[in-house]
Design goal:
The protein is an alpha+beta fold and about 90 residues long. The protein has three helices and four strands; from the N terminus they run E-H-E-E-H-H-E. Helix 1 runs antiparallel to helix 3. It starts with a strand and ends in a 7-residue tail after the last strand.
């Protein structure tokens, strides 16, 4: 799960073009990818929120650390402030 605050939209758009093939190569997919999160409870107000799905935490970590994802990750880190966690899902 990733909370994203885009600071450079042009560079982030380049990231978005590069990320999908890296997910495909590692068996990942977007579940949620977008803006307009609406707070139903509490004070959390992310401007953009992303949920990725992998078959396991280990697979997610392999993708995140992969040489395939490295160029896209560098663009994301350059263009946005992010908070990212990995959690086990309901198998």
């Amino acid at each position: 799960m990733v909370q994203v605050e885009v600071q450079d939209h042009a560079t982030y758009d380049e990231y978005r073009k590069l990320v999908q093939p890296t997910l495909d190569a590692h068996g990942g997919r977007f579940v949620v990818r977008g803006g307009n999160p609406q707070t139903l409870e509490g004070t959390w107000k992310p401007s953009r929120f992303v949920i990725l799905e992998f078959h396991s935490i280990e697979q997610a970590k392999r993708w995140w650390n992969s040489p395939e994802y490295a160029p896209a990750k560098a663009l994301r880190q350059k263009s946005a402030k992010t908070e990212m966690i990995v959690v086990e899902g309901a198998g």
